[in-house]
Amino acid sequence: MSICETAIFIFMGAFLGMVGQLIRVIIGLKKLKEKTPSGKFGEGVDGKQLVISILIGVAAGTIAAITMLGQTMEKQTLFTLVAVGYAGADFIEGFIKKNSPQL
Question: Does residue 26 or residue 103 have the better pLDDT?
Answer without folding.
Answer: 26
